[in-house]
Amino acid sequence: MTSLSRLGVALAIVSFLGAGCLSNRPYGVSSSNPDEELLINGMYSAPVKYRGMGYLVRPSDLVETGNDVKTISPLDNPKFVSISEARAEDYLIDEIDGLVIYDGGKMLFFPEQILAWHEIVNFNIADEPMTVTFSPFTETAVAFSRSLYSGEIISLKRSGYAWNNNSVLYSPETGTMWLQANGLAIAGKNKVGEKMAVANSAIMTFKDFEKKYPNGEVLSSATGFNRKYDVSPYGVYRESKAIYFPMATKPVKALNGKAFVYGVDVNGIFKAYEPGLLKDTGRGVKHDKVGDADIVVWVGEDGVLRAHESGDFVFSYPAAGGLKDRLGYVWMVDNATGDLVLGEKRLSGISTLKTFWFFWSAFHPDTELFAKVRGKGTVDGSPELKEGEGSEEVDGIKLDVDPSKFPTGNTKVEVETK
Q1: Mean pLDDT computed over every residue of the chain
Q2: Is residue 210 within 8 Å of 30, Cβ to Cβ?
Q3: What is the pLDDT of residues 263-309, one digit of tens each?
Q4: Rounded to an integer, what distance in angstroms lies between the CA atom of residue 406 and that of residue 285?
Q5: For the stretch 282-319, what's the b/e string if a residue is b when 16 or more beta carbons lie within 10 angstroms of its beta carbon?
Q6: Do the beta carbons of residue 180 and residue 136 sit within 8 Å?
Q7: 244, 237 in Cβ contact below 8 A?
Q8: Which strand ranges, in their side-by-side order, compose the sheet holding 176-179?
Q9: Alpha-carbon distance 183 to 166, whole Å?
C-alpha cells in the first residue's frame, strides 16, 4: 500500500450528524430567505439585510456541516520545527501538498495533513496577525491577514457552515462569516461584503519544500490535540465520486467534478488552468490574455503553479528557481510579495487558487478554461459545451449527495467524475 493510499483509506471519523438542519441555526442564520434574486454565481448583487443579519448568499444555502469549533479545533499557538525534526515526528507524506508562506526570515510549511484536522491556524508574522485556512470539502488552502482594512484584528474559528461545499469561517469579534476560498464576508451582523486581505503563499508538496527550502520550518504535529495526522479525517473523499453537501449553483460539466484546477481572478475575469496540461505546454509556460490583462502562467522547478502580470516581456522556461525571459535573463520570485523581480523591474504576482473543478465552476460559472475537455480537445477560452461534450457521459457516475438529508430544495450536483 502506498503512502498516499494509507492517507486515503482511513475511515471518515468526522461526524456530520445534523447536517442540513434549519431549526435553531447557529449564529442567528435565518431559516428562510429574502425575496431578492441571485446572480449566476449564487450571490446577491449587494448585501441584503434580513431579520437582523446581512447576507450575500441565501440563508438556506448555508448548509450546516455538523462540524464547528467543538469538533474542528483551530490552532492558536502553533509550534514550528526544523525539517529533520518534522521527519522524526513520522507522519509526513512526501507527495501530500502543504501551504508555504514567508515569515520574514524563513519559509514555513503547513501540511494539509494537519490542516485537514484543524482547518485554521492563527499565528503572527512579526507584528502582523495572520491565519492559514483549509477547506477539506473543496481542497482549498488560503492564507489571510487577520488585520482588516478598518484596522480591526479578528480571530477565526469554524462556523459549522459550508457554502457550495466551501467552509465558512467565523470571527466572534465582528459576528461575521467569511468564505474560506477568498475571504469574502457572506453573512453576519457586520462587515458583510468586505474581504480579508489574501497573503502571498504557494502550494507545494513536502518533498519539493524540503528540496527548495532545506532551512525552512514545518508546522509540528505536537499541537496539543490527540489526532492521527498520518490519516485523513475524511477518508477517501478526495478520490471518491461524492461530495458531502448540496450546491447553491450548478458546476459546469466541462471536466470531472473532482479534477484539480488552478483558478485566477484578474480584475473580475476568471480563468482556470488544468495543471497537467500546463506542464506539457510550452515547457510549462503559457502567455495568456485574461480580460484586458497580459499574464504569464507557469510551473516552476519546485512544482508550484504561479501567475504574474507579464507586460511586454516574453518568457521562455523556468530556470534556476525563477523564470527565464527570451533575452536569457532570469526573473526571481520575491518570497514576501510573490512578484517576479529582475533588478529594478517588478511584475506583480496574481493569486492562484487550487481547488476542485466542481467548486470553481459553480462559483464562477462564466469562467474561462485551459484544459482538455472530452469531445472538444484542448479548450482555451469559454468551456461552452455541445451535446456529447464534457464529462457528462464519461461513465454514468455522478457526484451527488443524499437528498434525504437535505430537504431544502438546494441544487443537487449533476457533474460526473471518473
Answers
A1: 87
A2: no
A3: 999 999 999 999 999 988 878 999 999 999 999 999 999 999 999 99
A4: 44
A5: eebbbebebeeeebbbbbbbbbbbbbbbbeebebeebe
A6: no
A7: yes
A8: 43-50, 53-57, 185-188, 176-179, 166-171, 157-163, 63-64
A9: 11
CA gap 51, 33 in Å, rounded: 10
Instruction: Please tell me the distance from the alpha carbon of residue 191 to that of residue 173, in angstroms, as a whole number.
Output: 11
- pLDDT score recorded for residue 346: 97
Residue 77's Cβ-count burial label (10 Å; 0-12, 13-18, 19+) is exposed
Grid cell in block for residue 13: 471519523
- The pair phi, psi for residue 66, each rounded to 5°, is 85, -10
Complete edge-to-edge strand list for the sheet that includes strand 202-205: 80-82, 217-219, 107-111, 97-102, 202-205
Q: Give the per-residue pLDDT at 385.
A: 81
Could you give the C-alpha distances from 392 to 262, 356, 373, in angstroms and in order?
22, 16, 11
If we measure between CA atoms, which residue out of 304, 249, 297 comes closest to residue 272? 297
Give the integer Cα–Cα distance in Å for 63 and 117: 20
Show the cell assigned to 39. Answer: 446572480
In angstroms, what CA-CA distances link 266 with 64, 82, 259, 312, 324?
A: 32, 36, 22, 17, 23
Q: Is 183 left (phi over 0), alpha (psi -120 to 50) or beta?
A: left
Instruction: Using the predicted structure, report yes or no on whether residue 400 has a pLDDT greater than 80.
Output: no
* Bridge partners, 359 (sequence order): none
pTM: 0.88
| Amino acid identity at 334 | D
Q: How far apart are CA 122 and CA 140, in angstroms?
A: 17
Q: Is 237 helix (H, G, I), strand (E, B) or coil?
A: helix
Q: Residue 306 in contact with residue 349, Cβ under 8 Å?
A: yes
Strands, sheet with 315-319, edge to edge from the N-terminal-most edge strand? 315-319, 322-325, 330-333, 340-342, 345-347
Q: Quick one: DSSP state of residue 147?
A: B
Cα separation, 242 vs 244, in Å, equals: 7
Report residue 81 CA to chain centroid gap: 25
